[in-house]
Design goal:
Rna Polymerase Sigma Factor, Chain: A; Arc Repressor Mutant, subunit A
Length: 184
């Protein structure tokens, strides 16, 4: 089978990358990132998660490029790495969902047992219970369990910047829920 120009060029970029040419690897990323992102998005169905998965996959590819048997095998190899990272992400999300449900039940039980008596605390816990599980868990880990963002990142297996971003969005959503409840 005859190779296309693009396939030959990709092989050249892989070979140059293997020789330590950072610019060649950067061009390889530029050429392949959108395709790999679309693949991850199709498998996961979430934009941010797909982006995270592809970034993790690129890190794995940087580390494992020297183990690639043939430069022409790059495409299949890259797609397999992305697919494996997607499987890992789905498993991680399932673990987080189970943890979220458990923590939500614990928080709800503590709340019902009178751990928080003030009207403001009631409003806060009521809004917290209405948050999606992943955001509720994140806020509980940070403000109830008092984990640092670094500790949360280690627990969830995500970059610290991702934790900070998710905490910000979770706080914003919690604020909107509390304001909506006080207006009613």
């Amino acid at each position: 089978m005859r190779k296309t120009r693009d396939q030959l060029y990709d092989e050249l970029l892989v070979l140059r990358s293997l020789e330590g040419d950072a610019q060649a690897f950067e061009e390889l990323v530029t050429r392949w990132h959108p395709r790999l992102w679309r693949h991850a998005y199709c498998l996961i169905g979430e934009r941010e998660a797909a982006q995270d998965v592809v970034q993790e996959a690129w890190l794995a590819m940087v580390k494992g490029l020297s183990r690639l048997d043939a430069a022409g095998a790059f495409a299949g190899w890259a797609y397999r790495i992305v697919a494996n990272k997607c499987v890992d992400r789905v498993r991680q999300q399932d673990r987080q969902r189970r943890l979220s449900e458990h923590l939500a039940q614990e928080a709800s039980r503590d709340h019902r047992e009178g751990a928080h008596g003030s009207e403001r605390a009631d409003s806060l816990w009521s809004a917290l219970e209405r948050l999606p599980g992943d955001r509720r868990v994140l806020l509980c880990m940070r403000y109830v369990e008092e984990f640092t963002t670094t500790q949360i990142a280690d627990i969830l297996g995500v970059p610290e910047g991702t934790v900070k971003s998710r905490l910000y969005h979770a706080r914003q959503e919690l604020r909107r829920l509390i304001e909506r409840e006080s207006d009613e």
